[in-house]
Structures are given as structure tokens and as C-alpha cells.
Write a structure and sequence with these properties.
Length: 183
């Protein structure tokens, strides 16, 4: 038996919604933090602190509003709190710049979502062997040599194929976005 108080169904639903939202948007919040913080290590620390505050204050989040903007606002205050740590860094942004970036980031996040959706559609249009090469190289972060080996190509052929596929995907994504196919 635990010492935790009994949990109502609404609390469970709220926790599940928090986990879903945080999981879906954590990378975007990290991107926002890392855009304002000098090092990846410091950005990771602030992301953890932000996550804890998001959990504590989730009951204040209004359903149907922009979760990314809300979480980034929390991250903004976590960054301001942590600025003393960064005072010795060569790159420290002033408050005015940080306040200007915050609303822009939410709009950029929506654009990135649209680009990811378009890229997913375009990847599905590729021949399975080409899609595998692209995913091994970029999604799994393998080098061209490993991607060539795993896809049964020579390194030279893989380089040529990746160059062709990058251009093809770029054109497809651009077309999807201009046609409103990813919106």
C-alpha cells in the first residue's frame, strides 16, 4: 500500500493529457530553450526544470490554448532564473531579445510541424529502397557508408542517390506546402 492519496478519474485524465502534450511538444520546447541558452548541457538542465514546473502548474493550463506557447513561457522564466549561470558565457541574450523570440517561436513551431507533415507524405511516395536509405542516413543518424551498406549500395551510389533524393524531397515538400497539402 502506498501513502499516495486516492486519485479521481479527472486527475488521471489530466495526467494523461499532460504526458501526451509534453511528449508531443518537448522537442519544440527544447529548441526554444537551446535557441536562448549557450550550451546544450545547460539547455537540457533548463528543459528538466521546465518540465517539473509544467507538471506542477498543469492545472493552470487552459485546455484548447497553445500548449507550446504556455510551456515556452514557463521555459522563458526558467531561463531568466538561470541567467546567473550563464553570466560568464560569451553568448548571453538580453531580456528584450528573449521577449522578442518567445512569440516568434510558437509560429515557427507550427511551420516546422507543417514541414514535418509534408515530409512524411513525401517520404511515403518514395520507392521503399530509397526511403530506407534516407531513413537510415538521417533518421537513425548513420553515416553514408553505413546507409550504403545496409541498403545494398556502394558508397558512391549512395551519395548520388541521397543527392537526388534530397532534391526530390525538397521539391515535394515545397509543393505540398504551397498546395496546402500539409496544412
Amino acid at each position: 500500500m502506498t501513502d499516495l492519496p486516492p486519485t479521481t478519474e479527472t486527475e488521471i485524465e489530466s495526467r494523461m493529457r499532460l504526458v501526451a502534450l509534453w511528449t508531443q511538444h518537448q522537442r519544440k520546447v527544447f529548441g526554444y530553450i537551446h535557441a536562448l541558452v549557450p550550451s546544450r548541457h545547460d539547455a537540457d538542465d533548463i528543459l528538466q526544470e521546465t518540465g517539473m514546473v509544467v507538471c506542477r502548474k498543469f492545472d493552470e493550463f487552459k485546455s484548447g490554448t497553445d500548449f507550446i506557447a504556455w510551456a515556452c513561457q514557463i521555459a522563458f522564466w526558467q531561463i531568466k532564473t538561470s541567467q546567473q549561470k550563464f553570466a560568464r558565457s560569451k553568448v548571453v541574450f538580453d531580456d528584450e531579445l528573449m521577449e522578442a523570440i518567445a512569440p516568434q517561436f510558437a509560429e515557427m513551431a507550427r511551420e516546422v510541424d507543417a514541414r514535418h507533415e509534408a515530409l512524411d507524405k513525401c517520404l511515403k511516395k518514395l520507392h521503399p529502397r530509397d526511403r530506407e536509405l534516407v531513413l537510415i542516413r538521417y533518421e537513425h543518424g548513420q553515416g553514408v557508408e553505413e546507409a550504403a551498406k545496409r541498403s545494398g549500395r556502394t558508397v558512391e551510389t549512395a551519395y548520388r542517390a541521397l543527392n537526388r533524393l534530397r532534391k526530390l524531397l525538397y521539391d515535394c515538400v515545397t509543393h505540398q506546402l504551397s498546395a496546402g497539402g500539409a496544412a
